[in-house]
Specification:
By secondary structure, the chain is mainly beta. The protein is 3% helix and 44% strand. The chain has one domain. Strands 4-3-2-1-9-8-7-6-5 form a nine-stranded antiparallel sheet. The longest helix is centred in the first third of the chain and has 4 residues, at 21-24.
Length: 123
């Protein structure tokens, strides 16, 4: 069984409150070879054309900077907030900066750096 534990330090807010990474990254995030969508259903990950939805019950937060997405009780992906990530207390203003998607595997992989490209369902 593959488990993943993430140690995070600091935050991407103003340091005064705890926040949840999943909802803070709502919208569509894209980069070379990967896409992440965070919406009311959960978080979906698409890599090389294969999309998988992780409902909110399969999203686990570690600290204030990262979440682990699990499939069949095993870690599948980690999403972290990059140092340039910025969110706003006013939810009508979208987050900016980057997030990074890491595959949970014992093999060597290259992380995907993603940028927010819009809201889910926008054309």
């Amino acid at each position: 069984m593959l488990q993943q534990f993430i140690g995070t330090y600091g935050d991407r807010g103003r340091g005064g409150a705890y926040y949840y990474v999943g909802p803070e990254i709502h919208g569509v995030w894209q980069g070379t070879g990967a896409e992440v969508v965070s919406n009311s259903e959960g978080i979906s990950v698409m890599v090389d054309g294969d999309r998988e939805l992780f409902t909110w019950k399969n999203v686990f937060q570690f600290g204030t900077l990262a979440i682990v997405l699990k499939k069949d009780d095993e870690a599948a992906w980690t999403i972290s907030l990059n140092e340039n990530f910025n969110f706003h207390t006013d939810a009508s203003i979208p987050a900016s900066g980057n997030i990074t998607l890491y595959e949970a595997t014992m093999d060597k992989t290259v992380p995907f750096v993603l940028e927010r490209t819009g809201e889910y369902g926008e054309n």
